[in-house]
Amino acid sequence: MAATPQQTTHSSPRERTREDLYWLIRTSEEVTRSALVEVTGLSRSTVNHAVSRLIADGLIQETEPSAKGPGSGSGRPATRLSAVAAGAHVAGIDFGHNHIYVAVADGLGRTVGEERIELDVDLQASEAMDTAADLLARLRRAHGIDGLGSVVAGIPGPLDAATGLVQSPTILSSWVGLAPADELGARLGTRVHVENDAVLGAYGELTRGVGRHYANYLYVKASHGIGASLVIGGAPYRGATGIAGEIGHTHLPGQTQMCRCGNRGCLEAVVSVDSIREQIAHTHPALDPATLTLATVHDSITDRILNEAGRTLGGVLADLCNLLNPGAVVVGGELGDAGRALIEGVQASITRHAQPATAAVLEVVPAELSTSAELVGALQLAASAVPR
């Protein structure tokens, strides 16, 4: 279990303890009092007191486990603690370069309904935001949801935290100068919080995925673009102006592929879904690169292509690992979901090029939430903003 990503200022240590325990219970789905004692190192009496207060406040509930089967041992099984969904429903929007993925959820961020549509988001900003608003309206009607307590959206590009404006003229070119939070808020009739998609992917893994096991890790979204987000002490790091993690345009010496930013040899021009699809299609003439799904092609040639892509990505990440000393690198996006060959390539390069003491304690793992990490992160962040 990871640390609480957003610590709240309290007037007493007891209140801080209750907040920390509430977070652990909320992100663990169901957990026992004994497990809380083991994870936190708190005394059993402290945990019991805090849990009793959380139950009395209606924030968590205690339920009996299902009956044990024959031969499962003697003794009364421990009761389970889980958070109580309260407050308004929330919504999340994941804008990818080529898709829009939306969902509505209860007050704990648990999905009630979702829809996904393919669309060129980079070149059709207004249409993309109109479509997202229409999809959410349809989901709300389908599930009888009158109002939304919070909405969070993710975009695959740099967003200035001070102005709320999309910054780069070469990433999300039709969005430059727009304030997505204002644009979406006007369409949805409610306040919208917007983040970089890699930040939301990191938050999704932190709250519902493999990131729960690490207090410090580097999340990499490897898809049509390459982005990253660093989690420090259980909270995403956004940088001075909110655009930390833009690693996709790191220059790779000796590479000449043209990138959409106008330079040659950028990481995402060499390692991206489109680039790898073209390589697989070139070696598999019967396959159509436009409809190729990376996770479904398994043979030695494809593994070689994916492994080499992983090694290229890992070479860039090795320098970041030397600087940041994360406990893990979590690879998300379509490439993270493509199989072990790419993950093993990333691990091999980090082991080869990172400082040995850094590489020795670092794990490279695929995102547990697969390509849903960004949407799950949006829902979880939205739920965290709902008063409880």
From TrEMBL:
InterPro entries (alphabetical): ATPase_NBD, ROK, WH-like_DNA-bd_sf, WH_DNA-bd_sf
Sequence similarity: Belongs to the ROK (NagC/XylR) family.
Official protein name in the record: Transcriptional regulator
Species annotation: Luteimicrobium album
Organism ancestry: Bacteria, Bacillati, Actinomycetota, Actinomycetes, Micrococcales
